[in-house]
Amino acid sequence: MASETHGAVTEHAQGMPQLDFSTFPNQIFWLVVSLVVVYLILQRVALPRIASVLADRSASIQRDLDKAEDYKRNAEAAEEAYNKALADARSEAQDIVNAARVDIQKDLDIAIAKADAEIAAKSAESEKAIADIRDSAMKSVKVVANAVAVDIVEAIMPSAGDAKAIKDAVAVRVKE
Amino acid sequence: MATEAEGGSGFNIHPMDQFVIKPLFGGEHISWYTPTNATLWMGITILAIVALLVWGTRGRAIVPSRTQSVAEVIYGFVYKMVEDIAGKEGLKYFPYIFTVFIFILFANVLGLLPMSFTTTSHIAVTGTLAIAVFVSVTILGFVKNGVSFLSLFWISSAPLALRPILAIIEIISYFVRPVSHSIRLGGNMMAGHAVIKVFAGFAGALGLGAVAPIIAIMAVYGLESLVVVIQAYVFTILTCVYLNDALHPHH
């Protein structure tokens, strides 16, 4: 707006300044200069720089993704190993429990067998002792019976003092 | 403007004044090398591009700063556009297309600054760009494909009887390309800025009560902010389409 107050150089535009062909060489010249400058700046500096930045970025993103993939795989492997270890430990524990049970069973069997044997021995001994006691008692019975019989016979009829006959008779009676 | 009150008229709106090319350091004659306001704003465009794409990316950071990520987004956007439209072979020409895109984008955006000069509103500039694209794409087409580049005009999928007619249409449309390509961009820039200037003139004429023109300026400015980016995009995408035609002329 301010320009027209100068008035000296240009009056108000007559028609379209765009069609003032006298300014064409000037505009075209400076346009070509500008375009060449822009092209050289872009082609030498700006575009390679932006392209390399973009390439770096996508490379680093790809690298990070690969790394993340690796980490994920490692984590999965670790989980698998953990699960496997857990299962192993469980089965081992089971084995140990089974072995212990078998051992205990074996010990128990042995102990029971030993105890049975001891019991059998003890009872055999006891039976023998009882038999002895019975024998000796029987013997004592005979002796006591003889003595009692002799005493009785002597008391009833002292004449008939045949000790041997009494003994035989007692022995027959005791046997019955 | 209106405050100048020339000849008693309250309406002295000169929407085209902003497009006048003036020598920077006085003088009347504009020869081909004279530094002008167009030169100045092309220089500012270059500086802005350097600021974003070179200074902004100086950190080369894996995690980008804000300016660096803007530069990367623009790079990725144009790169994908070239790849999608012109294919893998087109990527060889990516620096050229990127140059065109970034230059037009920054020239357009800087043109929206008040008091600035919009280099891309001049048909001399957009025409040069369009003709450069047209000529290089045509040469590239013949270099890459030889005479078979002409099969671009011979639609083999059409019935034989129609082909000559289609060929004429295709040839005309091919040669109209630089015209539409350049006028679309230049015309959009010029029209938008002229409309803003007209509303600014109204605002000046109405003085303090100029609510409606100021709202209109805001609306048009918002629209222009879109148009500025879209036109840079359209120019570039059409360049890619033409490049694709040159690389793969067989439909």
User: What helical percentage do the residues of chain A reach?
Assistant: over 70%
Q: Name the shape of chain A in a single word.
A: rod-shaped
Structural class of the secondary elements of chain B? mainly alpha
Rg from Cα of chain A: 67 Å
Show unreliable segments of chain B: 1-9
Q: Number of domains in the coordinates of chain A?
A: 1
Number of strands of chain B: 0
Query: Helix-strand pattern of chain B, N to C?
Result: HHHHHH
Low-confidence stretches of chain A: 1-10
Please state roughly what percent of the residues of chain B sit in beta strands, choosing from under 5%, 5-15%, 15-25%, 25-35%, 35-45% or over 45%: under 5%
Total number of beta strands of chain A: 0
Q: How many individual helices of chain B?
A: 6
Topology:
The complex is a heterodimer of chains A (about 180) and B (about 250).
Chain A: H1 24-156, H2 163-175
Chain B: H1 37-55, H2 66-90, H3 94-111, H4 123-145, H5 163-206, H6 211-247
Helix pairs in contact in B: 1-3, 2-3, 2-6, 3-6, 4-5, 4-6, 5-6
